[in-house]
Write a structure and sequence with these properties.
mainly beta, Protocatechuate 3,4-Dioxygenase, subunit A, Immunoglobulin-like, 4-stranded antiparallel β-sheet, 3 helices
Length: 472
């Protein structure tokens, strides 16, 4: 089997992360009759916001290309990758449906059977005429995204080379109420035709201003619900207009702006065709500091997130600049935790002290910690390795209270900052490659319920950790 060269970034990552072992990702692509497909284009990407409950939607949907190659004459492709990564694999071989999985790990053996292509087409219709908007669809079980694109100017759309089977589709019209999700089924025999007949809803106009000064705020984002569905942006004078408000599943209209605390209101859908809604935003707390590596050198590109324990757990992300500096602005008062993630180093979280009189939390230089490897295998009662099992790593770095003690509100944030997940590969093996020194519980995940740790692990820098064995 041909082994493609992995981009230099991966070798640097493995070297920096205390020589993280690698595992082969083996792929075989066949057609619907089981015949090998030679020359099939295969793309492998790495997810940055995977393996933990991430409320930063941009990070959660960020994928970094690792390799793009083609299968050999026998439909095969192999890659050697550092263990502990979350991967997305896509095969884009015409005329078949695009194949994609967002639940791949190094060590998997994938036999990818391409499927006949399906088509979904239709139109967004408002008052008998076409209207523009955006559509996004995904598989209801795997949550793999099938498409995310806008309609044509006349509201029409055609999405082809989709895989057969069930799908969910969310529509965001520019000037109408978002309809309920379409749940339907794609088949290769005939295109699925569906026109979305839309309601005009309510036009919401208003202005976003600074609550203390009354000055307009440009660049504020306004949308429905915490995801800011149907998002619009305020102009130079702070004015905005959002058309088609009234989604029954997203009653609240939310406004966010850099440096300010988010605010939400709940207009009454249908009360009037035009409603005035103004937002007066209060400036939030700012967390500032800088990050260095163990040698004391500034570290650029480190992902930093300040997460508050108040309602909705506001999540304010930032990246360190060339001098290692960061600033997370717009946090509400109350218990806050800080999270760091950087390739080649351990992920860590810290409880933060209270803000000063100027509503700032100024931190001393924070040093990235060495990454340690926690790995194991899941077996059934007979000792057979089990593939596709989700494993939890519960706990945080041992020095998480170095800056301040955790508040009693930690339980509100523990799901996001104190639990990581990994999936077993084709041989039942799992790995967490960015673990800081500390005490952790390891358990087989139990869906939405918190799993009781089956094994406790003390992680000490520069000490090898024995391979864990879990039984199900």
């Amino acid at each position: 089997m041909r082994t493609a060269d992995v981009i230099p970034f991966l070798f640097a990552l493995a070297a920096a992360a205390a020589q993280v072992p690698t595992a082969p990702l083996s792929i075989v692509v066949v057609d619907p009759q089981g015949n090998p497909v030679a020359g099939a284009p295969v793309t492998v990407e790495r997810g940055l916001g995977r393996g933990f409950a991430c409320l930063d939607l941009e990070l959660a949907h960020t994928w970094i290309p690792l390799d793009h190659n083609r299968t050999d004459s026998k439909g095969r492709l192999g890659l050697q990758l550092p263990i502990g990564l979350s991967l997305r694999v896509e095969v884009d071989q015409k005329p078949f449906a695009r194949w994609r999985s967002e639940d791949v790990v190094p060590g998997d053996e994938l036999r990818i059977e391409l499927q006949p292509a399906c088509t979904f087409r239709g139109r967004l219709v408002l008052a008998g005429a076409g209207t523009e908007g955006k559509l996004r669809a995904w598989h209801p079980q795997t949550h793999v995204e099938l498409f995310d694109a806008r309609t044509n100017a006349d509201g029409s759309f055609v999405f082809d080379r989709l895989p057969p089977g069930p799908f969910c589709c969310d529509v965001s019209p520019d000037a109408a109420v978002a309809p309920r999700w379409l749940r339907s089924f794609l088949g290769p025999d005939a295109p699925l035709q569906h026109d979305f007949v839309l309601e005009p809803g309510t036009a919401v106009r208003g202005k976003v201003v600074d609550a203390a000064t009354g000055e307009p705020i440009a660049g504020a984002r306004i949308g429905e619900g915490w995801t800011l569905h149907k998002r619009v942006v305020s102009g130079e004078g702070g004015a905005f207009e959002l058309l088609g408000y009234g989604d029954p599943g997203r009653r609240e209209l939310r406004c966010e702006a850099v440096g300010y605390r988010g605010q939400q209101v709940a207009p009454t859908p249908g009360a009037a065709p035009l409603q005035q809604v103004d937002f007066r935003l209060e400036r939030g707390i700012a967390v500032t500091g800088h990050v260095v590596d163990p040698s004391g050198a500034p570290r650029a590109g480190v992902y930093v997130a300040a997460v508050s324990a108040v309602r909705d757990s506001p999540w304010v992300p930032a990246r360190t600049d060339a001098k290692g500096r960061f600033e997370c602005r717009g946090l509400p008062p109350g218990a806050t935790m800080l999270m760091f993630r950087s390739d080649g180093f351990a992920s860590a979280v810290y409880a933060l002290p209270e803000a000063d009189a100027e509503d700032r939390i100024r931190l001393q230089p924070l040093t990235l910690q060495p990454a340690n490897l926690v790995r194991g295998v899941v077996r059934d009662a007979a000792g057979k390795p089990l593939a596709g099992v989700t494993v939890e790593l519960q706990g945080t770095n041992g020095d998480s209270e170095e800056l301040a003690p955790r508040s009693k509100e930690w339980r509100r944030l523990e799901l996001y900052l104190g639990v990581r997940t990994a999936r077993t590969d084709s041989r039942g093996a799992f790995a967490f490659a960015d673990v800081a020194a500390g005490n952790y519980g390891v358990a087989i995940a139990r869906g939405p319920e918190r799993a009781k740790p089956q094994v406790m692990v003390d992680v000490v820098d520069e000490e090898e950790i024995e391979v864990i064995e879990l039984r199900r």
